[in-house]
């Protein structure tokens, strides 16, 4: 291995980078689950140099060799030199994709994964070209929460989330697409599962990774305005609503920002309070306008249903209203298959089979627009 | 078999009758696919006496023994004495369900299936009690068109339709429900697949079987007002829209009733002409009002998507508008899984596996309201 | 339909006939389950003229249009004119396969199905050419017993048997093969399930249909020597042994032919009595010699295991002994997948899914010899 | 984490150890794939302390939390402190199983995995009690070769092998069984895939881990006689033969031990040379005697067929001969489902779905002996 040389990530020209990029590119932070790097190399050995930090929620990473998952592991704070393969046939080109499993962590300011470069004894060769670009925006479902872990596990921990077992990744792979994920467990389009109105995706969507705060993240550029022109998706999948509907069954919560109580209400007959439902609809309409502003040509598909579809008519009413207001026709609604007793993963979230079914339905749907 | 005795259908007290009933009950016409009779009997042998007529579209029937499909056959015009089983253990109770496979035929005025009675050498015993009552209203999908036949078959014939391979029947069985089917291939909520505005389900829904016309049918009472109070469903599944969206891609058609041309139009960019889309929406709203008028307590679920979901936002906008207008909250939208290349049956209609998947999703959805 | 003409079966030159043929070919008896006729015709309408008889065990038949099962029904004694299709596009060639569902009946001397001819208004055109020829020899499994019917059904009746839901038919279809079935429920290679040594397949195998006796059958030629040269299989699948092993757990039985008691015995530890096991092995060796005599070039595969595999070592020991004795190398053993709680059909026999799994494994196995 | 305490593996009394044990138990070497430790602990954090070494073939390990696979990774030479979980609910008992993925390596004398102990802040509580004990003896299939990796991967490397995706592990889990694996890729019961007669499992079976040689391994006790009385299996699954049949299609090879050429031959017609076939049979008979010597009460099942079943009659003839010679009845033959184009993993070995199918069939088979 004396012949291994180190190449800084910024010097690798033949590379696919998945996930949003900020100002810092060398070394390269991986902000979201699914954020990662893909290279094709010759040579017998390949290592990746990574720096990580975290407090409570340690990052997990995974890598695939020629499209097959080989390893998935926890990374505790520090510098990591990870061997991705060794002793392989030097002439054969090997495709490696290394990516973050853990979502952007709004609850751990220290959490970060930074790729510094590769050690190898071969050459970088041309990487696959992806014709499609898909952006996935979501909540815990898109963060792969519960995609790992036993059905009876209920702790809320980093290890249960993934990009490796995730309808977003599966869909992108099947459609041969480059993809971005922007998601956060517990958040909604209007409010979080617990009525916390601060936990809405639109409020952080325009920053590089507005979910990751604190001095360490800020230094990585997470709170900078995101340069949407740098990566224009063909398709935007919004998978939000699951936490917004949950909020209607939760107690009021105090918002420390304005010291007021917030609560989405139900009528005595169990139906949604119309005023509160309209708050969700306004948030949807407003978010669609934000998305359209930044991605003028994208086909926007609101996908919903992997954990129940009680918000179907609320979401579609908002989309219809948005279409009427704006004349924008490139917005659709698509219901995803529900998770059942046979397809649950950990703590009542979609398991691998549920993600697989959702990806299959979504791929089938998206292909008709080719 | 000398010991067999004949019992008129009107004299059978222990019986489940599936499908709408008109004034004529002895003998008993089976108007729709899925319309049928279910009895539980002792004795070694059982026969059913049936009279049928037809011109071009001959009726097909099927029967199940203890829940398992045993036979499916064509019935040409005449009197039929059909042996349902023979030489069985006389003591064991046997459950037999005999039903019509072919939809109500709007295109064959002579087509009819009339049950006259049974020949048996045992006793009628108590039939199953079904807690749920579900009404399915639909088009060719609910008529099971293409559920039989080879993928490459394209003739439009009676033999390809069924209740035996049909998401409606499968759903009712899985939920242990009594059920009605009211469906017609090619028809929509506003117009038929070919822009024929006469082919809309609401226009015939209030008659016993408004789809079956002509003197022969009229004599059976098909055009009488249906007595909705006689059978109040808990759940109404409306699976319409597939032909309404098809009409937007078809040429204009002359309506002989008013000698005018009719055509649902698309905009130059391919989107739906808003005026024409609103015709569909008005028809949906109006039909929902009709359904609610006759079934004040039913949970109405508009199901759609087995042959594409392009009309999602049109249907949901109409439902939302209906809810706003009426305050009626017991109306929902549920998207069914799409048919794929692996699940097509004959002439590009859902095959058995597609019906199975739709039933599975629908059962899972309906169970949450238990 | 005035334009329909009748063509005697003996005058149809473009035809595939499945199943063994005896001296009588016009009209044409269908002796075994799977025995049938296949034609390709133009014209709008097609009828088949059939004569049947039976006492206790009435024959069932089925037919497929372009490879898809359309109908399955009971035929009581008499002349039957069965419409196979009507009103189809006259120009399009239609492939129809009409076949017997019920096994050859050793227990009903009157049981018979005789095809007399077709009525049609089109032309007979070329039929498919099958490259492979496969003979299936078996017991109730190959007779499709329990392939129809509810899991809890236990009567032993004709209606539960089939060729339509049968690993033999599925295998032949998947391999694009002509095929013969020779099978009988309850019979073995040495003795029947109940120790009746008269119920062994080899004793009747050399007659056209030695299972069907009595004057009526004799007149059809069932007891004539079968002309093996008339149809030489490439592959012979022997699926016997399930009843032979059952006999080891049954009480002794009196054989009326010699007035002796017969019983396959187990040792006190539950293992097979070696003398009795050797009787089975001798029967296997002797049967393999008989098969080889009549089919000098066929690949003989003893398949076993769909209802347990307790006889694996007995069967393979016999095959090895046969190979040593004869030097014949074209004999193999292949274990079929077992039926499980999820794949049972009626009265503890393989259901549709079990037959499908067996066919899949067998097709995969046979393809490696191509 | 200051409160974590270290407990030597030898001091852990409440533990399940999978896989063969030699004289060295503290620290504890994991010799085979599937060899591992299982504990149930309270506390929020758990670490395992492991020492590994290797040259070309680095060990891989995996661990499961409450039965769900959480991580799989490569371990390069050195001391490893691996966090198995952190920040979990301290009161909830957590079941952790940590095991070796890589088979015993006959080709890397330095390769080893040694467990030193755990760091934890909770208590060890009672571990599951397994009623069954199953020993799996095999080749690359049982080593899980190709169970990871892309279908087109052809390098022969440690990373492609596993216990995590392996019919042996799946079978043991499903049957709630303790289990041992003894396997080696490329080896047979008589000779290796390339005719190397030194590569036969029986020659090393009686040593603790006769596959692992060299001073480093010897120091761990791999070449000591194994104490069979220390762990008596109820069931022994022998899955050998796949390499023995391959040898019949390979060129001769020089055996450096005696400087002679060795080759299993075929006859001109492609059948196996009888003398050479008898060498395999003798090896089987001899190995069965060795197994019976050490495990007098075990049910021995020779399982074969996941990569073709060409040796069926050779194996069964040997088993029958063994049974005749010894009178031993507790030896059976069971054919496993073949791997198909849809179920291959890397370099033409069984993939996950093939292992799953094999486990399902084997579990179904073994359950009937309960």
Fraction of helical residues of chain A = 10-25%
- Note poorly predicted spans of chain A: none
User: Which class do the helix and strand fractions of chain A yield?
Assistant: alpha+beta
Our count of helices of chain A gives 7
The count of β-strands of chain A is 18
For the record, the CATH class of the largest domain in chain A is Alpha Beta
How many domain regions of chain A? 2
N-C termini distance of chain A: 47 Å
Task: Enter the CATH topology name of the largest domain in chain A.
Answer: Rossmann fold
Q: Give the largest interface.
A: A-D, 30 and 30 residues
Overall mean pLDDT of chain A stands at 97
CATH superfamily of the largest domain in chain A: SGNH hydrolase
What is the string of helix and strand elements of chain A?
EEEEEEEEEEEEHEHHEHEEHEHEH
Give the oligomeric state of the chains in this entry, treating copies of one chain as homo and distinct chains as hetero: homotetramer
Q: Roughly what fraction of the amino acids of chain A lie in strands?
A: 25-35%
**CA-based shape of chain A:** globular
- Named at the architecture level, the CATH assignment of the largest domain in chain A is 3-Layer(aba) Sandwich
Largest sheet of chain A: 6 strands, antiparallel
> What is the CA-based Rg of chain A, rounded?
21 Å
